[in-house]
Structure formats: C-alpha cells, structure tokens
Amino acid sequence: GAGVSQTPSNKVTEKGKYVELRCDPISGHTALYWYRQSLGQGPEFLIYFQGTGAADDSGLPNDRFFAVRPEGSVSTLKIQRTERGDSAVYLCASSLTGTYQETQYFGPGTRLLVL
Amino acid sequence: KQEVTQIPAALSVPEGENLVLNCSFTDSAIYNLQWFRQDPGKGLTSLLLIQSSQREQTSGRLNASLDKSSGRSTLYIAASQPGDSATYLCAVEYGNKLVFGAGTILRVKS
Asked: Which tens digit of pLDDT belongs to each residue from A56-110?
C-alpha cells in the first residue's frame, strides 16, 4: 500500500492474555519504529528496527514486551500477560533508510484496551 | 533526561486568526525537530522538519522556527481555518528515536 498500515485497528483483551499487533511499513523502507501513546500524552518510543534486527529496544517497558521483524518488512509487537496499564494506542512508523534527519511516516495505530 | 514540553495544552481561536504554538526541549543535542498533526483515529502527519543546522522551515500557511541554543521551537499558523483543528505534536530526534511533547489541541471556530 501507499502508507504504513496496522492491524487490528482496535483490540480488546482481558488482563493476563497475550496479544499481537502487526505493522506493514511502506514498501522499501528499511527502518521501522514502534511507539506507544497513552491518553493525553505524546507517543513514547519503544523499539527501532534496521532491517531484521532491533537496533534500539531501550524503550520497551519490561520483558513482557517483544517485537520481531523476521524478513525485514512486516513487524509484530507481542505483549504477554497484558495488564490494564498496557491500554494505549500503539503506533508504528517507517522511514526509508533510518538515517538521521529523515521523516518517519506513521500508521493509524492499534488501539489496545485491556479489561 | 530528554523532555519535550508544549504550551499551551489547548487553544481555541476564531477562524482567520494567526496563532503560535510553542515547544521547548531540555537536551539541545538534537538531530532535527518535527511538527506533526494528529487527527482523531488517524496516524501522525509530518508538517515540517527542521534540521539541527536550520533556523526555520515554511510550508504554505505554516512556519516553524528552531532555536537550538535556547531549546525552543515555535509553529506559526497564519489565517487559521476550521480544517486546521487537530492536535499538534512537537517531536525532537535524538539518534534514531523521536521524543514527543504531549501536544497542543487546537480548535478553530467558524
């Protein structure tokens, strides 16, 4: 597609369950980013992929969060044992090469609600 | 700690007014600064990107300035329109990550 797409657009789950959120970056973009946006706040950085490898995962809040990008295109953010505090909009972005001073293009996000 | 602050948190203006949104950041070792627009239920749209070596960027009715030494940026919107109503986010790039402010919610009344 023309832009970054994310699925599902909304996800409701129960506390303790496992969830997977998917991101399809712009075709040809080697850099991919995940951010989390809580209500009334700006997005917070989670992880950055360059190709298949996680170049910076310093934003992942704890070991319940994990992300993969096995073929260097689609990425999946995985959350184990979800907690109510995980409720947020999860945003994915991509950029062409990941070099500094390059625009990141954002997807519409996945709204996660943990009951 | 790298922090970005935006003032005001919300702003309501009549159509046609010129307005200024403010952004400040604590760590001046930035690579660039971007202003984004966020509409409800949609992703972020990049409006302007100012490289660390630049002082300002312009696009149509939008003008963004950057003063790296003082840690400040402003987004100027001329002749505001109801279609400008959205949340405006300031983001500073450190390495490969963006650090965002909490945003300014703008409402332009017709």
From this structure: 999 999 999 999 999 999 999 999 999 999 999 999 999 998 887 788 999 999 9
Which residue among B43, B91, B96 places its CB closest to the CB of A109? B43
> Quick one: pLDDT at residue A1?
52
Radius of gyration of chain A (CA): 13
Residues of A in contact with B29 (CB under 8 A): none
Through-space distance between the first and last CA atoms of chain A, rounded to whole angstroms: 33
B6-18 as b/e, with b when 16 or more CB fall inside 10 Å?
Answer: beeeebebeeeee
User: Which of the four pLDDT bands, split at 50, 70 and 90, describes residue B28?
Assistant: confident
pLDDT (0 to 100) of residue A67:
97
Q: Which of these, B28, B60, B65, lies nearest to B50 by C-alpha position?
A: B65
C-alpha A76 chain-centroid distance: 7
Cβ pair B92, B101 in contact under 8 A = no
Of the candidates B75, B81, B30, B79, the one whose C-alpha atom is nearest the C-alpha of residue B57 is: B75
Residue A57 contacts B where some CB pair is shorter than 8 Å: no
Contact between residue B3 and residue B25 where contact means Cβ atoms under 8 Å apart: yes
In Å, what is the CA distance from A47 to each residue of A57, A95, B16? Answer: 4, 14, 41
Cα nearest neighbour of B47 on chain A:
A103
